[in-house]
Amino acid sequence: APPAPTSSTQGHQQEPALLLGRFWPLWGISGKSQILFALVFTTRYLDLFTNFISVYNTVMKVIFLICAYVTVYMIYVKFRKTFDSENDSFRLEFLLVPVTGLSFLENHSFTPLEILWTFSIYLESVAILPQLFMISKTGEAETITTHYLFFLGLYRALYIANWVWRYHTENFYDQIAVVSGVVQTIFYCDFFYLYVTKGRGKK
């Protein structure tokens, strides 16, 4: 079942907030990656309509969703004139189609909510790819600030720490989450490498 937001997901929550504070200009930010992250949170937190865990859990999930969609709105509507749509050209169907298929083939149980939760885990692991593609295409990362990178790295580091802690204290191991997280970490390492080699020193 979808887990409650943890300190690791709170690190992720800071990312759209940072982007909102960095909206001028949006050159270098992949709107398509932000769309994928919004879809990740939407499919992961559909249990808002079926299960009540706590007020904190509900409020955090709602905040995640609001931040994600406000970020997308800012990029594509409010400040679209500063958005580099020409270079943000990654084909999202190349990710959505295989992720959807894999979600039906490999999941914890064949129920709508579990399939959608699994979809969100798989999609999150590759959601950064449009941003990587954009940086590779333009050869620069002007608006990807060090603060944004810090919270991306913090998000992954806290997730890994959470895995180790839960395995040590609860003997809990979620193969889908761990494998997807490893894939995501590899892509983030590539992201950091591209930033250092192509965007270092740029503001």
Structure description:
This protein is mainly alpha-helical and 203 residues long. Helix content is 68%, strand content 0%. Helix 2 runs antiparallel to helix 3 (55-78), helix 2 runs antiparallel to helix 5 (112-126) and helix 7 packs antiparallel against helix 8 (175-198). The N and C termini lie far apart (41 Å). The model has no long low-confidence stretch (mean pLDDT 80).
Biggest sheet layout: none
What is the helix content?
A: 55-70%
Q: Bin the strand percentage.
A: under 5%
Give the terminus-to-terminus CA distance: 41 Å
Keywords: Cytoplasmic vesicle, Endoplasmic reticulum, ER-Golgi transport, Membrane, Protein transport, Receptor, Transmembrane, Transmembrane helix, Transport
InterPro entries: ER_ret_rcpt (IPR000133)
Membrane topology: Multi-pass membrane protein
Protein name: ER lumen protein-retaining receptor
Lay out the secondary structure.
Layout: H1 7-20, H2 31-44, H3 55-78, H4 93-105, H5 112-126, H6 129-138, H7 146-170, H8 175-198
Helix pairs in contact: 1-3, 1-7, 2-3, 2-5, 4-5, 5-8, 6-8, 7-8
Compact description:
The protein has 203 residues and is mainly α.
Features:
about 200 residues, globular, about 0% strand, single chain
